[in-house]
Design a protein that fits this description.
Number of strands: 12
Strand content: 15-25%
Distance between the termini: 8 Å
Largest sheet: 6 strands, mixed
Helix content: 25-40%
Radius of gyration: 17 Å
CATH architecture: 3-Layer(aba) Sandwich
Order of helices and strands: EEEHEEHHEHEHHEHHHHHEEEE
CATH topology: Protocatechuate 4,5-dioxygenase, Chain B
Shape: globular
Number of domains: 1
Structural class: alpha/beta
């Protein structure tokens, strides 16, 4: 739950990681949808949201600076109703500038602002459920998959002060994300998916940064759970913003077979 910063009227927000699943999430009758629909009420209304989505990759950190970010439909082959959805939340240009400053000061990174970047489905899909009125300003920070977990942990550490400023730092990806498994079994989680999801939850709850950043060497099914890193990297930003402390498990379930919809909060 939200707490008050001592000596300040600004609410201290948590850092969170959510699994956003299929682009059809907002239409689905699954436990994860119900969970996300109540999650915004648990934390209250943040001053703004900084979303780190698995679906924006750049060579160096970039932040969305649009005052009115467009809803990006970055997928294909879905029902027409999905493409008609819009999430007209205001942008957060001031927050974007603050993020650039923090990354430069605390991590020595030359981040830049993309003045037209909209919100991809890693951002608007969960936010449409969490804050359906679309009245919370939001911007995105990109990920850099070739730089790995340690880099993203450092990003999060640099951004930790935002939590004291009423900003919800939200990593959005997938605790287990292997789309190839759809062709094998769309109904039941694979043994390796369950094992990785359990291991990840245990390490997160223990605040075990060392094993988490080395997850590919530390967990036998990691290569199947994450053939590529991008859907887990937002978790490391949230972990860093949370100070590496043990996290609180918010939700655990699977969707579409082996997509883990797990979510965690730091603070």
């Amino acid at each position: 739950m939200m707490t008050q910063d001592s000596g300040s009227s600004v609410d201290v927000m948590p850092a969170i990681f959510v699994s956003h699943g299929s682009p059809m999430l907002v239409f689905e009758d699954i436990p994860a949808r119900d969970f996300l629909a109540q999650l915004g009420q648990e934390f209250g209304r943040p001053r703004a949201v900084l979303c780190i989505s698995a679906h924006w990759e750049t060579a160096a950190p970039m932040v969305g600076g649009a005052a009115a970010p467009e809803t990006i439909h970055d997928f294909y082959g879905f029902p027409e109703a999905l493409y008609r959805l819009r999430y007209p939340a205001p942008g957060a240009p001031d927050l974007a500038a603050r993020v650039v400053d923090l990354l430069g000061e605390a991590a020595g990174l030359e981040a830049s602002i993309d003045p037209v970047r909209g919100l991809d489905h890693g951002a608007w899909n969960p936010l449409m459920l969490m804050f359906p009125k679309a009245d919370v300003p939001v911007t995105q920070l990109s990920i850099q998959p070739p730089l790995g977990p340690d880099h993203h942990l450092a990003l999060g550490r640099a951004l930790a002060p935002l939590r004291q400023e009423g900003v919800l730092v939200m990593g959005s990806g997938g605790a287990v994300h292997n789309l190839a498994q759809f062709r094998v079994d769309r109904m039941n989680p694979a043994d390796w998916a369950i094992a990785f999801d359990d291991w990840l939850g245990e390490r997160i709850s223990a605040g075990d940064e060392a094993r988490l950043v080395n997850y590919r060497r530390m967990q036998a099914g990691a290569a199947e759970a994450h053939p590529t890193d991008e859907h887990l990297l937002p978790l490391f930003v949230a972990l860093g913003a949370g100070g590496g402390a043990p996290a609180r498990e918010l939700h655990r379930s699977f969707a579409h077979g082996s997509l883990s919809m797990a979510a965690y909060a730091w603070g």
